[in-house]
Amino acid sequence: MKTIFPKIVQMNHDNKLETNIDKDMLQRHAVTVMEGLGAAVESLDDSRFLNSVLISIGQTHVQRQVKPHMVKKLWPSLNYGLQEVLEEYYTKSVEEAWKTVYDYICVYMKLGMENPDIDPDNTSEIGR
């Protein structure tokens, strides 16, 4: 996580997590991610809109030097957070549904990362 969030996760010389984590920045990013996940779930019936939003998010992440493999590595943390919050409601089928949504998000964010100059509303430009 320290390579993905160098401004938030600070490590000391012994490679141990520092206690002076920028908790405000971490919380803002966590809220943004959760709002994005919520919007993704709410937009599942409008895939064109959802895809364009996810491509755009991928494009903004390129500017922060984020690579697609870094986004995929966040699943275990998200999965853990969902388990903690949902407790007994986080069944195997709920986990699988969230994983499917997360994988979908990753696919379209990756498209945006790999195509930073395309118009997210016109994905027919991809591959040209």
TrEMBL record:
<dbReference type="InterPro" id="IPR009050">
    <property type="entry name" value="Globin-like_sf"/>
</dbReference>
<dbReference type="InterPro" id="IPR044399">
    <property type="entry name" value="Mb-like_M"/>
</dbReference>
<keyword id="KW-0479">Metal-binding</keyword>
<dbReference type="Pfam" id="PF00042">
    <property type="entry name" value="Globin"/>
</dbReference>
<keyword id="KW-0408">Iron</keyword>
<dbReference type="InterPro" id="IPR000971">
    <property type="entry name" value="Globin"/>
</dbReference>
<dbReference type="InterPro" id="IPR050532">
    <property type="entry name" value="Globin-like_OT"/>
</dbReference>
<comment type="similarity">
    <text>Belongs to the globin family.</text>
</comment>
<keyword id="KW-0813">Transport</keyword>
<keyword id="KW-0349">Heme</keyword>
<feature type="domain" description="Globin">
    <location>
        <begin position="1"/>
        <end position="114"/>
    </location>
</feature>
<keyword id="KW-0561">Oxygen transport</keyword>
<dbReference type="InterPro" id="IPR012292">
    <property type="entry name" value="Globin/Proto"/>
</dbReference>
<protein>
    <submittedName>
        <fullName>NGB-like protein</fullName>
    </submittedName>
</protein>
